[in-house]
């Protein structure tokens, strides 16, 4: 971008740099809420100054340096400046020199460790899942409260309260902005990956609202995943999750019809799948496999790879996919996994054995309000020629979903089946 549109530059730079700036400030001042306030102060200065003085050659660096200067000023006012100098390991001679410039240099974070600390802090288990989601998107995604509210279709005050409570909880519980102790990393990493994948899933298949997808959420989740993969190159599940998101993201161009209507996987034009994202996803999966045994995200990526490697639904290795779902069901037991396995079984062995699996899931409490259960059952019944029963299942699916696009899809199936009766 050029200096002719400084406000757009500020917005773009903030979206890209917010996480890094807030993470660096959080390490300096030791408080997530205060770090965000200082970063916002730097953002306001950019909005005030750049339209008059022009966009700096390195706008991200300007934002970072300005925010750090404000943090240092704050520490001076709190009479903690000398203490912080000692914490960054300066000796007596350097502390008597140009201390401000030295502190700024000392607080640089070229390897992204600050971002990693902040990510683990924002996804701390003491916070609710909703709080983790909102705080992660706010601090590391650079999204406003309004944008987060719009993405998850909840009132803006609700999101504001979630962010406020999350910050307050971190402060009251005296949660330090640091990497967890080594024994706690696996459990804490699981929380981080869960939050990133929840963000991605909400973008990939929106729970409610008019749009079937919200690509911006997918992009934010994938960006966070790529950052995490760069910071934790030896973690199998991190690369498994990145592989999964890359492969699923590759289909987005084929998932919507001309009027924004959903196009199901088996009906998609695979020529419209993004081959670059597929190559990236397969490379990430290969890297995950080289690190050790695949976990739940790596196994889901391996399933997605079965689709990505096939040029048509008929060419897909459905037997391998059904076997992978079976393994996934042991690694991460879930009725949703079993439902997905039924779909793969139906393609590999026909609708009848798949219907037996689905019928065994009808009593599952977790699937009672899940629209995909009657939708899958309806599809299997239609393939078996049981048209009236299939129509009832799609009617039930339409009544359960809160997404308008998905409801329209199910109702079209109902109408088509009614014509067959």
Automatic annotation (TrEMBL):
One Pfam family it belongs to: Sigma70_r4_2
RNA polymerase sigma factor 70 region 4 type domain segment(s): 120-170
UniProt keywords, alphabetically: Sigma factor, Transcription, Transcription regulation
Domain of life of the source: Bacteria
Protein name: RNA polymerase sigma factor
Domain (RNA polymerase sigma-70 region): residue spans on this chain: 17-80
Keyword Transcription recorded: yes
The species this protein was found in: Acrocarpospora phusangensis
Domain DUF6596: 188-288
Cross-referenced InterPro entries: DUF6596 (IPR046531), RNA_pol_sigma70_r2 (IPR007627), RNA_pol_sigma70_r4_t2 (IPR013249), RNA_pol_sigma_r2 (IPR013325), RNA_pol_sigma_r3/r4-like (IPR013324), WH-like_DNA-bd_sf (IPR036388)
Single biological process term from Gene Ontology: DNA-templated transcription initiation
GO function term, MF aspect, one: sigma factor activity
